[in-house]
UniProtKB/TrEMBL annotation, chain A:
It comes from the Bacteria. It comes from Flagellimonas eckloniae. Residues 1-26 form the signal peptide. This is Type 1 periplasmic binding fold superfamily protein. Keywords: Signal.
From TrEMBL, chain B:
Residues 350-768 form the TonB-dependent receptor-like beta-barrel domain. Keywords: Cell outer membrane, Membrane, Receptor, Signal, TonB box, Transmembrane, Transmembrane beta strand, Transport. This is TonB-dependent receptor. Residues 131-222 form the TonB-dependent receptor plug domain. InterPro entries: Beta-barrel_TonB, Beta-barrel_TonB_sf, CarboxyPept-like_regulatory, Plug_dom, Plug_dom_sf, TonB-dep_rcpt-like. One of its GO terms (biological process) is siderophore transmembrane transport. The keyword Phosphoprotein does not apply. Its main location: membrane. The keyword Cell wall biogenesis/degradation does not apply. It is a multi-pass membrane protein. GO terms for molecular function: siderophore uptake transmembrane transporter activity.
Amino acid sequence: MKTSKFLFTTAVAGALLMSCSNDDEAPDDVNEEEVITTMTITLVPEGGGTTVTLQTQDLDGDGPEEPDVTISGSLSENTTYNGSIVLLNETEDPAEEVNEEIEGEAAEHQFFFEVGIGLNLNVAYADDESDYVSAETGENFTTTNPVGLVFTATTTDAGTGTFTVTLRHEPTKPNDGTTGDAGGETDITETFDLVVE
Amino acid sequence: MKIFIFIVFVFLVHFHGLSQDCTDILSGQVIDYHDKTPLEKAVIQIVGTQNIVETDDNGKFKILDLCSGEYELEISHPDCSTVFIEVNLEGIEWVDIRLEHHIEELEEVKVIGDAVANKTNSAIEESLRLTTLEQYSSGNLGDALKELGGVSSLNTGANIVKPAIHGLNGSRVLILNDGVRMQDMEWGDEHAPNIDINSAGSISVIKGASALQYGGDAIGGVILMEQARIPSKDTLYGKTLVNGILNGRGGNITSELTRAFKKGWFLKGQGSYKRLGDQETPDYVLSNTGIKEIGASLQFGKRLFTWGWDARYSFYTSEIAILRASHIGSVDDLIRAINSGEPQVINPFTYELQNPRQEVTHHLGKIKFYKRFEGLGKWNLQYDYQNNRRFEFDVRRGGRGDQAAIDLELTTHTLSSDFKWDAKEKYQLQFGLLGRYQENFPNPETGVRRLIPDYEKYDFGAFITGEYRLNDQLLVDAGIRYDFSRIDAQKFYQTSRWEERGYDAEFQDLIVEDRGTQLLVNPVFDYNNISGTVGFKYSENDANATRLNYAIAKRAPNPSELFSDGLHHSAARIELGDLSIQSETSHKISLSYQRQFKQWGFTLEPYGNFIKDFILLEPTGVEFTIRGAFPVWEYRQTDARLLGLDFSSYIDWTKNWETEHKFSLVKGKDVDKDAALINIPAASLRNKIIFSRPEWNGFEAFLESQYVFRQNEFPENLWVFSPADQEDVLLEINTPPNAYHLIAAGAKKGFQLKRNMKLTTSLTLTNLLNTKYRDYLNRQRFYADDLGRNIILQLKLNY
């Protein structure tokens, strides 16, 4: 019975396929180099006083844990603060500063500062693209749209409200300074509840 | 459907005849190959002469007064395929001729591309179907299949089209490419089949799991792409099609050439190239929607009636740009996109394919051997190899745009064999076995956490199917299949995700290594599935048929349903699989009633599909990350019910005027939640008027209306907290777009250039009125309108 012999052979071959030995090596870790885990905004008052630090930290990236938001204290009335932003990727060891990448692609990035009702705070950009060296050309950018890695924030009367900081990738530039007009993709966004007293 | 072309080898006994004055005699007997019964009324003709005889009731014949020499005989019989044999005549010769008396056919509920008036001649159906495929030569598989009732598609833009049968797609739809089950990562919504439509000679769709020989998990159905038959005679023929496509400002070219020999040898080569730039809606350019596609295949072998083999290699590669505006960051970006009603990014037309885009390459190699055993049946043995490599490039920071964000390599080996007993007139049995090994390698170089982990998968399947003809009217078929599959994966979970999912309670023993923030786990899951089918076909005559089929099918979860975890950048959503997902079980009952009258005919196909533990992916909420809030889509299991109806009919008004009408409806329900299922196609109605004058060089013109209703049954939308608005807003992620009505028209005409060279020109216009519309089953409906008017000019040259 030739036929059954053929089928039997096939079955055996199939069984052999099934019983491959399993000596897998563990797969390599993926080095997540593009993640931004931490944004620290430092507000230094002109003429001295208490520095205020705002931070959002999300160590598991797109994992389930929500970002941890800390605000070191309240702002003072009628004060001008010099703001600067530091971005970190803390999944790497040591932590990597992401600012370099933003600076190298300054023309494709912009921070937006949106102040909610009740918070008396005026924000102005203190940098533009030409302050930074393009990673692509090695030369300073020739365009002068704002970027927002450094800025000034000036308080007036006391009040409370939200202060939302958003980093957009590939927004429309120039824009009117609002996220609605700029489009692009959100790389970071955090809303801080601030008090001016 | 497969009618085998074959040659019968004849064993001749040589007599040393003395006569030279044309008194030789050739006699013999014609018998059925399978059951060896003599065949009456077979016609034997000596090729090139008027010498014709018929066999008597014992299947015997005699031709007198022949000269010695070589003759070619043509033997034909009404129930059989025609055979040619060569005879070397010297004196008196006796030949035994065996004819193939079976028309091998799939007896499942089959979709025919058209309610064809005369079912007796299957060739008409075939050529019609080839005609339809050629019409879609510039499109893709999913688009062409939508010509069939009950077949829809899930799209990501116009170039990524996943076929859906009776509302189900992806892993629930098997695609067999010339006998090879495609293994091309059908898991994701934006993973279209990696197939060049021009490589198929015909495509059939089986709407359900009753074709057990192809797999037991075809809960949606099976798509069979088959090769055109190659005749066993000395011939060389081919064709070339060129399409100019207005929308996208490009075109495609496809060409094939076949060389066949009388001895059964054949060689066939085919190649296609397609290139489109940005496509356009009525109002704007869809920036970054171009495509580049190359397909090629080579097939060769030897096919005789008693045995044969063939080998095939096919290559497919495509680079598809993904609508730039559909690449978003977070919920706020999504809300903005949905509310604005037009894409956030519109650039001037370009042929460039920029990020986001995908590059997929698929290699398929197959070798198949068959042998017939006289009076018994046919044995097949096949080995196939597939390699699928998928890159997805994303808009990335820091010059990483050239580094793929997803890089997967899927390798599959399959060995399968089956035996078909068809010796008996009344019944047939088929028995088969399959073994498969598959490996997935996600490249860690991407710098992005793996969406699909490293895994090895082992499959083993065995089936037995049979059919029994009770009488001329009634045919019963049944089958049972067993499938074992084991998936052995190695995956990194974020510790936070592992705990959030509650896996630390249930699956803690799978952990191999704890790396602090990440856990390496090694899940090994086994699935044992039994599927079965039973049904009958009752036909009083050729003009009507009733078919009833019940199929139980079980499908093991695929890797994305089990292991997805994290941000799927191209979809801007967090997708979460579930390790505890088990196989889903479908019970499908389908009824088909077909009637043909003198000038019109119709087919009515109601069905019910009751799926226990149906696996679905749906939006469940949002998660907050430093990048903002993301919609979370989770896989879950529920009991589902799909009820539907396909109707098609044709009317021949006059010799030249014909109309076709098609209606499809499916309703999907989540029984546990008492709510609508997500992504169920809306009802659609198609009407077509066709004018044909064959005597004007095959002139044909048509006007078609397609009305797609609004899907009024959809899952609830979500309320999500919008950081930008500092309040909960309604995320209208499930709201379907409005109904739409599209008009298409076309005409074609042929020109006989030489005796065996024919040019056919055709012009097709789709979305003739440049209607603005969006389709519920296109994932880009949130961001942009669908395609505007398109004009396709096709030149086809047969030689």
